[in-house]
Amino acid sequence: MLLKFLLLPACLLALAACDARKTPDTAAAPPEVGVLTLRAGDVPVRIELPGRTAAFRVSEVRPQVSGIVRQRLFEEGSLVRAGQLLYQIEPGPFEAAYEQAQAALANAQAGIASLRGKAERFGELVKANAVSRQEHDEAQAALAQALAGVRAAQAAVKAARINLEFTRITAPIAGRIGRSSVTEGALVAPGQALALATIQRIDPIYVDVVQSSLELTRLKRRLLAGEMAPASTQVGLRLEDGLPYAHAGRLRLTEVGVDGATGSVTLRAEFPNPQGLLLPGMYVRAQLDSGVQRQAILAPQRGVTRDEKGEPTALVVGAGDKVELRALEVRGTAGDQWIVTRGLSAGDRLVVEGLQRAQPGEKVTPVAVAVAALPGAAAE
User: Fold this and answer.
1) Are 179 and 23 in contact (CB under 8 A)?
2) pLDDT of 39 higher than 70
3) What residues are paired with 354 via a beta bridge?
C-alpha cells in the first residue's frame, strides 16, 4: 500500500512532463485562413452620379394677339395632343378686321382691269405718235401703282386672317398640361410675362447628371493610353427612396463645356417613363459605366479593409505562407468587388476569411475558398 502512494506522484510528474512536451507543438501550429486566388480580366468600371430629371419637351402657351379670354377648353393636369384647342380669345374684333381687309382688297382689284386696258392702248398709240410719251408713261405708272395696292391689300388680308387664327390658342406640343394662370374674362396680350400654361412631355424623360471635370479628364487620359476601353451607353437609375428604377436608359450627350461655378460637366441620359413615375425636377442617382478597365484585378470587399488614414489595404499570403500587408489603389466597384489597379496581381492569394488570425509577417495555413462560397457571390 505504501508503494502505491509512492508511485502515484511519480506517475503524475511523468504525465505532466508529457503534456509539457506536447503543448509547444500544438501552439506552434500556424492558424488557418481562407484565401482566394486572384485573376485578371476586363471589367466595366461602374460609377454612380447624382442628377435630376428634366422634361423631354417643354412648351409655354402664350397669346399672340390681345383680347379677352372667352373660354378655357382643357382640364388642368390632363394630357393634350399637338394642335388641340386650349383657349378661345374673343374673335369679334378680328373677324371685323379680316372682313375689312377683304373689302379693301376687292376695291383695289376693281380698278385694275380699266388701268391695264388703258396702259395697253397707250402702248400701241405711242408707237403711232397718237399720244405723247408722257401720257404713255403716266398710264403705265398708274397700272403699276394699282398692282402694288392690290399686293398690299392681299398682305393686309393675310395678316388679318393670321390674327383671327391666333384667337384660337392651340397646344404646340403633345404632353401633360399644368395649371392655367388665367380664367375666362382675363385680358391677355403678346409679350406678357406670365405664360397661360405650360405643357411638358415626360415620356421619355431626361436625366441630367453631373461629373467632376477632373474625373472626366482622368478617364479620357486612360482611354487615350489604352488602359481602358469605351463602355456601353446603358444607364441605370436609383430613385429618391433608394430603390432601382425598372427601365434602363441610354446616355445621349456629354456637354462640351465645364460649369465654371462647380467645375463639373453635365451628362444627359434618356429614360422611358410609360407609367409617369418620374416627374421633372426629381433627385435621382444614375449608375453608368465610365469605361472597361483592361486586365483589372477584382478583390472581394470583405478582403479589403481601411487603415487609420482611410486608405484601402489587404492581407496576402506570400512566399513561405507568410502574411503580407499590401496598400491598394481601387477604382470603382463591380458588384460586391473592388476593382484594384495597384497593390494586387494575378495569382496573389488574398485573405478573405480569418482576417483576425492573420498578422503581417506571421506564417499561416492557407485554405482555398471558392468565389461561390463568398457571401453575395450568388447575387453577383
Assistant:
1) no
2) yes
3) none
